[in-house]
Design a protein that fits this description.
alpha/beta, five-stranded parallel β-sheet, four-stranded parallel β-sheet, 11 helices
């Protein structure tokens, strides 16, 4: 037996699914159990191909717009993704007589309410976020045309010229980098002292917690792997946080098969975390792949324990959800 090189894996906690993602996937699984296939889902339920494919295998059909649902399936449920949707989408669903289950994360809904409150109180809304992200489209779509401005960077904040600098309120996308956003808010507050903050922090607890855990674990890591999808905002932020916080190198991977084993360089300490939409079963797969090649010691880097749990929609609470129903994403923990 050849001696395998030693490797310490710093496994971050919390990592992976947040309560909002968990709830969104449960909603699709429970709808399939209660109503049978097909269940339509508008937009990727969460930004993870493995999750989407797992749900497709169970009978979910993903569409970008409600028009794609064929007439003969209009009585089947349609689920709105965790990122939230513009107001026009449920209105459209009502007009088409569709039965829909809204899987918008409750924390995204809270940002919607805070943006609407600013607007109701006569403030122009500044939304800090990434253009084109479904969550940003959903939040902007809560408000009348022209009442919200998107700011993406500190440079945007420096150049922004509002019509009325004394009546501004801001909210942020829930999945941003805590540090980057603080810089943008500071710049806006310096320029517009009357700027009103939302009633509560918009960046969600899960984004903040995952970034904090990576910050703690990163120093001294030869490589930091973030399990997540290239279109997942919170996962991409974790890669940046790892590099900024002292990891020599950081990469986003979707599956173990993407790891380029020949070019990993000398590894003695590996950090691993996962974005909020990445299933634990893939974290297991990646640790197994390293265990085949290295003599692995796992060092748990836990900064906090999350206990949040969001209830699914009332219409499907009567259906039992078993560990087996969710094993395709959670593994057999």
């Amino acid at each position: 037996m050849t001696d395998k090189p030693k490797l310490t894996i710093r496994l971050c906690g919390p990592r992976g699914f947040c309560a909002g993602v968990d709830r969104a996937i449960q909603i699709v699984v429970l709808a399939l159990k209660k109503y049978g296939a097909p269940v339509y889902v508008r937009h990727e339920i969460v930004h993870n191909r493995y999750v989407v494919e797992g749900l497709q295998a169970r009978g979910a059909i993903f569409v970008e717009e409600l028009d794609e649902i064929p007439m003969e399936h209009r009585d089947q449920p349609v689920v709105f993704s965790a990122h939230g949707v513009p107001k026009s989408v449920p209105e459209d669903a009502d007009a088409k007589n569709l039965f829909y289950l809204d899987a918008t994360c409750p924390l995204v809904s809270k940002v919607h309410k805070q943006a609407m409150r600013h607007q109701r109180l006569g403030r122009h809304v500044i939304l800090i976020g990434h253009s084109g992200h479904p969550e940003v489209i959903g939040t902007m779509g809560q408000l009348p045309e022209g009442t919200v401005s998107l700011i993406e960077t500190v440079e945007d904040a420096e150049k922004y010229q509002p019509e009325d600098a004394d009546n501004l309120g801001f909210v942020t996308q829930t999945t941003l980098s805590v540090d980057d956003t603080a810089g943008i808010i500071a710049k806006l507050q310096e320029r517009f002292p009357q700027l009103t903050a939302p009633a509560a922090e918009s960046i969600c607890y899960a984004t903040t917690n995952r970034q904090e855990a990576v910050k703690e674990a990163a120093p001294g890591c030869d490589l930091f792997l973030i399990v997540g999808a290239p279109n997942s905002s919170n996962s991409k932020r974790l890669v940046e946080v790892a590099e900024r916080s002292g990891a020599r190198h950081s990469l986003l991977v979707q599956r173990a098969e993407e790891i380029d084993w020949d070019n990993l360089g000398d590894l003695s300490v590996l950090g691993i975390s996962a974005g909020a939409s990445a299933p634990e079963i893939i974290v297991d797969e990646i640790i197994d792949a390293f265990s085949q090649r290295f003599d692995v010691t796992i060092d748990l880097a836990i900064t906090t324990v999350e206990t949040e749990n969001f209830l699914v929609n009332r219409q499907i609470r009567d259906v039992e959800l078993t560990a087996q129903d969710m094993a395709f994403v959670n593994g057999n923990h």
